[in-house]
Amino acid sequence: MNTATLPSVRGKLTPAAPLAPLVWFKSGGAAEWLFEPKDLSDLQDFLRTLDPAVPVMALGLGSNMIVRDGGVPGVVVRLGKAFAKVARTDDLTLECGGGASGILVSSTARDNGIAGLEFLRSIPGTVGGFVRMNGGAYGGEVKDILVDCDVVLRSGALVTLPVADLHYTYRHSELPEGAIVVAARFRGHPGEPGAIQTEMDRISASREASQPLRSKTGGSTFKNPAGHKAWQLVDEAGCRGLQLGGAQVSEKHTNFMLNLGEATSADIEALGEEVRRRVKAKSGVELEWEIQRVGKPK
Q1: Cα separation of 213 and 104, whole Å?
Q2: Which among 220, 265, 269, 278 is annotated as catalytic?
Q3: Which of 37, 88, 114, 118 fits 109 for a cystine, CB–CB 3.0-4.6 Å?
Q4: From CA 289, how far away is CA 280, in angstroms rounded?
């Protein structure tokens, strides 16, 4: 796919763009093309005129992702400042850009006396990722606060999907393939800013105490199986601190994997598969990946 076959853009289009600096694990290959649209119409025009056979993938903060070492074919779309705004639309509703962070959303909710969005403070990601994955933590989930979302389909069409159309389950939605979430409306309930801040502080302290936040990690590796906690199954299978190449199961929280410095994405993914194998052998439970694994092996 050369430049001549790509639509012209007003934003930034970079060939062979390294993705490792953009993801939390700091590993993996390059995007064939990285597109950072200037605004909504730039994104729509690009997708509308892009060859429908070219795959498209959205990238947020890259906190919940393994980019394989062979890189990502097609176009990776990263939403920048134009998509990172948050504003109140009524007493209890926030209009949030797809590129806005959980910290910005929860802080804006606090400043406007909107409670129920505090848990977003603890999820390292953007609104687009939260909506796609039904992000959740500390007792809250996106399905509980989402009113509807605007998505640009692979065809370039802009559609608004009510929460019911996403058919949310645990860490999963039925968002159309190749769709990019550009905005979402979140609704909370009345709260007092001081009390909301106290809850946000409690969540931050709990997260700091239990998770390896100062490390190159990818957040929760596996989904919690029904009736179980993933970290406990991993621990009981003897995987705490387990190492493979430059990758390690965190000793602080066993549902987190770490890049100790020079790990390849292949190391990290192979370690995850070894953990799954040991957990299956020990408890009979088949762990499901929560982290997205994208691209192709080297």
Answers
A1: 19
A2: 220
A3: 114
A4: 13
Catalytic residue among 68, 78, 132, 171: 171
Contact 44, 272 (CB under 8 A): no
Active site residue 171: yes
pTM over 0.90: yes
Other C-beta atoms within 10 Å of 102: how many? 24
**Angle made by CA atoms 63, 111, 182, in degrees to the nearest 5:** 45
Active site residue 88: no
Crossing angle of the two packed helices 102-111 and 193-210, in degrees rounded to 10: 150
Instruction: Report the C-alpha gap between 179 and 79 in whole angstroms.
Output: 13
Tell me the pLDDT tens digit for each residue of 132-167.
Answer: 998 888 888 999 999 999 999 999 999 999 999 999
Strand partners of residue 179: none
Q: How far apart are CA 67 and CA 30, in angstroms?
A: 8
Active-site residue, 290 included: yes
Q: How far apart are CA 148 and CA 236, in angstroms?
A: 40
d(CA 33, CA 237): 41
End-to-end CA distance of the chain: 19
Mean pLDDT on 228-249: 97
Reduced DSSP (H G I as helix, E B as strand, rest coil) percent helix, strand, coil of the chain, to 5: 30, 30, 40
pLDDT at res. 4:
56
